[in-house]
């Protein structure tokens, strides 16, 4: 099927070939439908951005966090709708459905495969950038957060009211709550409290029929599914009610960098046996990347051992020295700070600038490809050596693997408690990333990460080889772009992300959206 780019607006009929048949694409009818339903003209100009609107490109690009999907040949949406009210969301669903446009929902735009803002068929984007309210209720230790807010805005909202409550979600502060909570949400509080979705206690969703549902009215099946069963699948989640968690006023963070010449391989080998068994208050992670060697002109590979302890340095040091003396942690590697400052620390930002959490554009954007693994058995030393050596290759100049210790609370939650199944017995999760700035390098870099992933096959979980939905990887398999996708076809990727929960997700999808209105390359298909 050929994607036709629309440049002349507004009342144009687009023709597309669909499985051999030809359909008229009433783009003008879609806009007409929307404008009838959003009748206030001053509101329309702030809500609908067509391709001939001077702000179209800036609105589109504002939440693109992977330049791989922002090239001149990347398919563009016919329109971007930035709703300001629930009724605008309902109208967008109604008009897209009735006039044959696929809908892509975008909150923070961090989808690593770009599926929140790219589609191969005519589509519009529902961009929740104006749904950003964060209401923190410290008395009841809860917050309502709208999907378009970032994790940073939520963290900031909590920290501006209290130093003793926090929320267990991702490390990066620019990720959107909408996509993040649709797939899991793991961060530095993960060993203590589990995932972000483990703390969702209510939600507000607009379904394919435009109905506005809360937990009670959607029922426990659908409420289960939206907490990790994938975005753009069951409806548009407008807001989430989350339970906040206690954090101490002072936490301690640390970094110890070891390269290949400093025994990085051996220390990482040892870390695998220890990190998942440490007390829940201690989270550790290893960041592997290429760095300059002390020998001029040479490169080496560094394993950066980083961690956060929910307490002071005086308690942390004897604990690490007893459990993991090989790391050689010293007081000068440690810094005490507040929980919210630790977010900045892990994001590589100055910890004094907490206001930066409100800046959605604070981090540079490059082109990237990601893959993930969950590891259940420690890797051999030679296995680690081979893995590290791959970072010496030229294509890995801007590659990083973030290896996050599991165990703790993650071991206590049943696999079917929520759609996200990777819980007990996981030693660590590895997120592999490769980045490039020159498009000419894309092929080589993507090939490198695919080779790294092949190499890791012997060490990763098996049958299925588990993967984290929040770092989508279309290499694992996709739905048919148009038409029906069978259960068997979708199982190829679905079982990797959801294991035995996949079947229940398909059943719920079949019940709540049988016509598959909410769909993307890896959304749950109905039967
Ligand atoms: P985006 O808006 O692109 O949406 C992602 C998916 O959810 C799309 O399918 C979209 O249609 C759908 N969606 C979005 N809003 C929706 C809504 N309101 N209702 C229904 N569907 C909706 N993860 C993690 O667990 N821990 C971490 O530390 C990090 N760190 C991190 C750093 C960086 C730089 C990146 C690029 C990604 C991460 N992630 C992560 C992964 C992140 O959790 C994942 O990409 C989220 O889906 C991002 O959510 P956004 O809303 O930003 O994405």
Automatic annotation (TrEMBL):
SUPFAM superfamilies: FAD-binding/transporter-associated domain-like. It holds the Pfam family BBE. Its main location: secreted. It is found in: Secreted, Cell wall. Residues 73-247 form the FAD-binding PCMH-type domain. Keywords: Cell wall, Disulfide bond, FAD, Flavoprotein, Glycoprotein, Nucleotide-binding, Oxidoreductase, Secreted, Signal. The keyword Isomerase does not apply. Residues 1-24 form the signal peptide. The keyword Oxidoreductase applies. Its cofactor is FAD. One of its GO terms (molecular function) is oxidoreductase activity. Belongs to the oxygen-dependent FAD-linked oxidoreductase family. This is FAD-binding PCMH-type domain-containing protein. It comes from Gossypium mustelinum (Cotton).
